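Lecture 7 notes: from sequence to structure.
We start with the chain below.
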Amino acid sequence: MSHRSEGGRGRAGVSVDVRVATYNVHRCRGLDRRTLPERTAEVLVGVGADVIALQEVIGPGQATPGQAQELGAALGMGWVMAPARVLRGHLFGNVLLSRFPIRHHAQVDLSWKTCEPRNAHRAELVVGGASLHVYNVHLGTALNERRYQAERLVTFVHDRRATGPKILLGDFNEWMRGRTTTLLSQRLGSVELFPFLRRRRTYPGFFPILHLDHIYYEGHVEVLNVELPRSRKALVASDHLPLVADLRVWL
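Predicted structure tokens for the same chain:
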């Protein structure tokens, strides 16, 4: 993470280099069917991101703190959770980890008909004295469900009360370019993998054949680099690989 003054190219002010990641951790249950939050934490430590959007995280229950707290403590990062439902007595949903102070967070319901409950999460981070809004989402698996969710999601991101640059990360569950990808690409900037990666699939982790995880943005943002970490642990720790991007954000 670094700060610099920037002029020209139609931008003026301070830019901040931010490393972001999105990772569906699959309840910290690996392809070897072992549930090991400490292994997930090791993968995330290796990623070295400033902001991490996690999906499918088991949160606090009545008797135990859950994986969200364990991962946050292991990485030394603050965290906020947006639970979508209760799973076996524990909150379950999306978690955002941040090295920056978290000023405020909110969520919007994306649930559609009788499908599994879903939501989108927004956290306002304090970066260089300014606001950076980060969104974390896990969309549904049904086509019509995602169409509904995409419209709701765009409205949520374009809420005028959230001013400043915005970054949207998550598991969009779209196996090929469809309505969701098209709509988000039309309304937001997209972090494209082609200029940076030869292997561009994130699911399933050990032998990925689908690109389900994406990063979008709004505002003055430059994509510096994109990575798909493929360490031995990352290949088995979840059914997804983490998607990582180095971004230069003008505040």
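Points to note: DSSP finds five helices and 13 strands in the chain. The first helix runs from residue 37 to 47.
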